[in-house]
Amino acid sequence: MSTAAESTVIGRESRRVILATMVGTTIEWYDYFIYAVCAGLVFSSQFFAAIGKDALIVSFATIGISFLFRPIGAILAGHLGDKIGRRAMLILTLLLMGGSTVLIGFVPSAGTIGISAPIILSVLRIVQGLSAGGEWGGAALLAVEHAPRSKRGLFGAFPQIGVPIGLLLANGVLAAVTALTTPEQFLAWGWRVPFLLSIVLIVVGIVIRSRVSESPVFDEVRKQKERASVPLVPLFKNHWLLVVLGALLFAANNAVGYMTTGGYVQSYAVKVVGVAQTPILIGVMVSAVAWLVTTLLGGWLSDKYGRIRIYKIGFIVQLVWMFPFFALINTGDIGLIILALILFTVGLGFTYGPQSALYAEMYPANVRYSGAAISYAIGAVLGGAFAPTIAQLLQSRTGSVYPVGIYLAVITAVGLVAAFFVKDRKGVSLGIVQDGQSRANLR
């Protein structure tokens, strides 16, 4: 095959991989986020009303419970992903997430089946957590390991934008349903529609992902028989500090991001500030578009200026904007709220866009899936898991939203400090390296 023809084939496959990882993560996070938004708007009254005044806090807590199972999903998917490949795990995690989401749409309310309702709901949310724990690592690595060396940040940003697109779809579908139903109809059955629609997305995602080739890096590992029999052993023996630092980086992004993806801002704006439900959902949709743009921009800039430099800029923006953000939410003016949400995404995008490339370059090929997935999952537990619950607790106990800003500022500062201890390895070879080499990843 000529060089030009080979380049065309590689380019076509790269575009297919970008589409598959982006579409797949979009579907995964659409499923994940409709639960989070409904936890703030619906589940407290439909499943947890018997608890009384703390029903909303408990409803948000079910979001966090699923995060506790994400490390388990990451360990299982990482183990299998480092042994049998990235592609197979992407299909499995999509089936798990989609199946549990559709089933949530069929769960009767507590008024119909009593305590069984919140138990079934929580179990299905746990399955979502297992799936989410394994999904990201495979999608991120497949995109980055297929990418040209000089464009890993940009390629790796495409599975990342599945989050804002999923948020856009989730809030968009919910906004459409709320606009087409009365409040009584929405609580009675309308909220179920977005969950049931997931079955269509599952079919689309499986078709697209089944057509993607395996990662060339994993093929190299497999051919040279470098696969670790138990990837967790060399990972934690040689690279445990990288796992910790990677988790702290993501925790700082994830806690802040879950103010909207976890439904807290929507719930606060509607139930405390008094904004109508449909306009705030539309506002979050607008911010999701902005988040998509800043995520792609963050990945692209990381190819030019380095992953860690863009991370630091993003964390500084998060710190600076935290309190003006909540001040604008408190005005109740939907235009100012949308402005607040848009500017809120700059820090998020700059600390999310470079993540796939950074994590892929942090770990050796034979433990890369495990390392990336577990760092991500632990970071999610430390960051977003109970962020909406903590935020709701702080706000309800103090009567002010600004303690929430202090909480988010502290966790952002932790991420910023962690960034100073990670060495930027932009452009490093992703092929097989010796086990001890990743010590060069630390400053």
From TrEMBL:
<protein>
    <submittedName>
        <fullName>MFS family permease</fullName>
    </submittedName>
</protein>
<feature type="transmembrane region" description="Helical">
    <location>
        <begin position="400"/>
        <end position="422"/>
    </location>
</feature>
<dbReference type="GO" id="GO:0022857">
    <property type="term" value="F:transmembrane transporter activity"/>
</dbReference>
<feature type="transmembrane region" description="Helical">
    <location>
        <begin position="57"/>
        <end position="77"/>
    </location>
</feature>
<feature type="transmembrane region" description="Helical">
    <location>
        <begin position="89"/>
        <end position="107"/>
    </location>
</feature>
<feature type="transmembrane region" description="Helical">
    <location>
        <begin position="189"/>
        <end position="208"/>
    </location>
</feature>
<keyword id="KW-1133">Transmembrane helix</keyword>
<keyword id="KW-0812">Transmembrane</keyword>
<dbReference type="InterPro" id="IPR005829">
    <property type="entry name" value="Sugar_transporter_CS"/>
</dbReference>
<dbReference type="Pfam" id="PF07690">
    <property type="entry name" value="MFS_1"/>
</dbReference>
<dbReference type="InterPro" id="IPR011701">
    <property type="entry name" value="MFS"/>
</dbReference>
<feature type="transmembrane region" description="Helical">
    <location>
        <begin position="154"/>
        <end position="177"/>
    </location>
</feature>
<keyword id="KW-0813">Transport</keyword>
<feature type="transmembrane region" description="Helical">
    <location>
        <begin position="334"/>
        <end position="352"/>
    </location>
</feature>
<dbReference type="InterPro" id="IPR036259">
    <property type="entry name" value="MFS_trans_sf"/>
</dbReference>
<keyword id="KW-0472">Membrane</keyword>
<feature type="transmembrane region" description="Helical">
    <location>
        <begin position="240"/>
        <end position="260"/>
    </location>
</feature>
<feature type="domain" description="Major facilitator superfamily (MFS) profile">
    <location>
        <begin position="17"/>
        <end position="427"/>
    </location>
</feature>
<dbReference type="GO" id="GO:0005886">
    <property type="term" value="C:plasma membrane"/>
</dbReference>
<dbReference type="InterPro" id="IPR020846">
    <property type="entry name" value="MFS_dom"/>
</dbReference>
<feature type="transmembrane region" description="Helical">
    <location>
        <begin position="32"/>
        <end position="51"/>
    </location>
</feature>
<feature type="transmembrane region" description="Helical">
    <location>
        <begin position="373"/>
        <end position="394"/>
    </location>
</feature>
<feature type="transmembrane region" description="Helical">
    <location>
        <begin position="310"/>
        <end position="328"/>
    </location>
</feature>
<keyword id="KW-1003">Cell membrane</keyword>
<feature type="transmembrane region" description="Helical">
    <location>
        <begin position="280"/>
        <end position="301"/>
    </location>
</feature>
